[in-house]
Amino acid sequence: MQMSALHTPPLVLVHGLLDTPKVFDGLRRHLGGRRPNLISPALPMRLGRTPVLQAAELLATTIEDSLGAHQTIDLLGFSMGGVIARSWIQLLGGAQRIRRFISIGSPHQGTITAQPWPGGVFQGIDDVKWGSNLLLRLNRDLDPLRRIECHSFYSALDLVVLPGWRAVLPVGQRTMLPVLTHPQLMRDRAALQPLARELLRP
Length: 202
What we know:
The protein is of the alpha/beta class. It is about 30% helix and about 15% strand.
């Protein structure tokens, strides 16, 4: 059963490191206008030089400017956008207004591909290295995540988040999508259909 548009909270989509809001065009088509109150802010990631928490602060400002300070929302983050969204939820008070958090291919447990990059320059990439200060801080207190509904989608063979099974939140439901690459998580029908079903669930 799909939710009534009259009772559907706004949906906020958060893009990843090298993406723009256009990365969600395929998902929007699959939703077919059934999530009418949808925003997707453009966050200046500067090729990974913007720290994740700074991007989360920009996300918080955009949400408040667009939807006010108290409107309950659903939140979806793709790739690094999932870690940005999670940082807002756990560290900046976002949990108070979240109904459902959906993460897609996000390096919540770090990724090998971030390890070679110099952290002094690429602070955002440094934040998603294995054992980064940010990820350790997020994992110290999971209560904000436990208070909301969380669902992680991932690809077992994701070549951006390595290994792919680490692209999941530490709490909530986990679903492996039948796609082979990171970009396919936002492009392939086999991924977009189950994502749309989740977003249309009451």
